[in-house]
Specification:
- With about 425 residues, the chain is of the alpha/beta class.
- It has two domains: about 5-35 and about 290-425, Lyase, Ornithine Decarboxylase, Chain A, domain 1; about 60-285, TIM Barrel.
- Helix content is about 30%, strand content about 25%.
- It is built from twelve helices and 21 strands.
- Strands 4, 14, 15, 16, 17, 18, 19, 20 and 21 form a nine-stranded mixed beta sheet that branches. It has an eight-stranded parallel barrel with strand order 5-6-7-8-9-11-12-13, surrounded by seven helices.
- Strand 14 and strand 15 form a beta hairpin.
- Helix 5 packs across helix 6 (about 125-140) and helix 8 (about 210-230) packs parallel to helix 9 (about 255-275).
- It is elongated and about 70 Å long.
- The protein binds ligand LLP.
- Pathway: Amino-acid biosynthesis; L-lysine biosynthesis via DAP pathway; L-lysine from DL-2,6-diaminopimelate: step 1/1.
- InterPro entries: Ala_racemase/Decarboxylase_C (IPR009006), DAP_deCOOHase_LysA (IPR002986), De-COase2_C (IPR022643), De-COase2_CS (IPR022657), De-COase2_N (IPR022644), De-COase2_pyr-phos_BS (IPR022653), Orn/DAP/Arg_de-COase (IPR000183), PLP-binding_barrel (IPR029066).
- Keywords: Amino-acid biosynthesis, Decarboxylase, Lyase, Lysine biosynthesis, Pyridoxal phosphate.
Length: about 425
């Protein structure tokens, strides 16, 4: 679905616009997002899961009003995890019934707003929250549809900070020790709640399907226990997000149809064995939809060879627009995109303009030895968790997100200005 091309002068274009034009018109750094690629990926998930399942795009990966409208048009639902994400979704006109609200510590105010708005589900993350949401819903004279998030105790093979289903971490209610069963017991007795299902999210940037299979097995096991104890068959399960994408050529991601097939098969099989009605399945991909659809366009500012080591290439952004390298030791690639070069490849480290040496965008990269100030370089696969985790460290202004397609480019999130920064500084 990618519309990235390179012409005979080595100039890269996407969606029919060259990077040199884009840099001129919108400045650098900038996140350049291929709208047709986004839509195609969203549609691929939707199609793979069909009408018996729901796809909730995880807004934390990247959310803006334009994104909400694309999702709406492509038939996806939306997972939000804060009042801010909820406000963005509602302001873009998303039907609240298609919104799921997540988080391990939603505030009373956030819960109230979500219940009032009529969100389709709130995912309950703790015993206190079960009581809290029930109380708020009852006070508003409503019965809120909820799922309970459980931790199934699988180790997802990913970075420790983004794995979420092992036991020693903050999310969900452990299946172990009968805690999840106790949570279900409580939720079923509270008037303010309509318990519609069980939720599990095992982590992020995962390539190996076996963790999902174990999770599905354990979630269905809980459904069976619930049926046996309460005579109730919960109608839904959500297996979370977490599908990995290719950041470098060594990553080999699964396709949505493979995932849909594997999950549907295991849920159906397990339910048949347990003589349960097959629940409606939902998933919550974020990175897999938006990650590959954008690249960050930077201008090279300085090139500093360190004899016998490597060459440091400084760009006009850094850890404020992509914290993932510093935070997770994430791997990225980079390419010269504004011209061709026949020069030998040199070992570089692409770094930002921030005041610390951990400000690394691409740890190890080969770039042509004639790289010079003014060249444009692009770091692919920055659509997810880059703009959404961007900061103002060193009072650097957060870059815009520019959507391209059919020869058009349009800013969907504008570049921050010094005025924006100073507006908050009221001292
Ligand atoms: N559902 C739930 C409940 C989640 O917590 C997450 C991600 C997702 C879905 C979407 O996961 P995805 O499909 O995007 O992997 N900042 C980290 C990733 C944190 C993920 C948090 N939860 C990173 O940059 O890698």
């Amino acid at each position: 679905a990618h519309t990235v091309r390179r012409d005979e002068d080595g100039v890269v274009s996407v969606g029919g616009r060259t990077v040199t034009e884009l840099a001129e018109e919108f400045g650098t750094p900038a996140y350049i997002l291929d709208e047709s690629d986004f839509r195609a990926r969203a549609r691929a998930w939707r199609t793979a899961f069909g009408t018996d399942a729901d796809v909730f795009y995880a807004g934390k990966a990247f959310l803006s009003r334009a994104v909400v409208r694309w999702l709406d048009e492509e038939g996806l639902n939306l997972d939000v995890c804060s009042g801010g994400e909820l406000a963005t979704a509602l302001s873009a006109g998303m039907d609240p019934a298609r919104i799921a609200f997540h988080g391990n510590n939603k505030s009373v105010e956030e819960i109230t707003r979500a219940v009032e708005a009529g969100v389709g589900r709130i995912v309950l993350d703790s015993f206190q929250e079960i009581a809290r949401v029930a109380h708020i819903a009852q006070g508003l004279g409503k019965r809120q549809r909820v799922q309970i998030r459980i931790t199934v105790g699988v180790e997802a093979h990913t970075h420790e900070f983004i794995a979420t289903a092992h036991e020693d971490q903050k999310f969900g209610i452990p299946l172990a020790g009968g805690q999840a069963a106790e949570a279900v017991r409580r939720a079923l007795t509270l008037d303010g709640l309509e318990l519609i299902g069980i939720h599990s999210h095992i982590g992020s940037q995962i390539f190996d399907m076996s963790g999902f299979e174990v999770a599905a097995h354990r979630v269905v096991g809980l459904l069976k226990d619930i049926r046996d104890e309460h005579g109730v068959e919960l109608p839904e399960i959500d297996l979370g997000g977490g599908l990995g994408i290719a950041y470098t050529s060594s990553d080999d991601p699964r396709e949505p149809h493979e995932i849909a097939k594997a999950l549907t098969e295991i849920v159906t099989r397990e339910c048949e064995a347990a003589r349960l009605r097959v629940p409606r399945v939902s998933v919550e991909p974020g990175r897999a939809i938006v990650g590959p659809t954008a690249f960050t366009l930077y201008e090279v500012g300085t090139v500093k060879p360190l004899d016998g080591l490597r060459t440091y290439v400084s760009v006009d952004g850094g850890m404020s627009d992509n914290i993932r390298t510093a935070l997770y030791d994430a791997e990225y690639s980079v390419a010269l995109v504004s011209r061709t070069s026949d020069a030998e490849p040199m070992l570089t480290r692409v770094v930002g303009k921030h005041c610390e040496s951990g400000d690394i965008v691409v740890k190890d990269a080969f770039l042509p030895a004639d790289l010079a100030p003014g060249d444009l370089i692009a770091v692919p696969a920055t659509g997810a968790y880059c703009r959404s985790m961007a900061s103002n460290y060193n009072h650097v202004l957060r870059p815009p997100v520019v959507a391209v397609g059919d020869g058009e480019a349009r800013v969907i999130v504008r570049r921050e200005t010094e005025e924006d920064l100073l507006r908050l500084d009221v001292g």
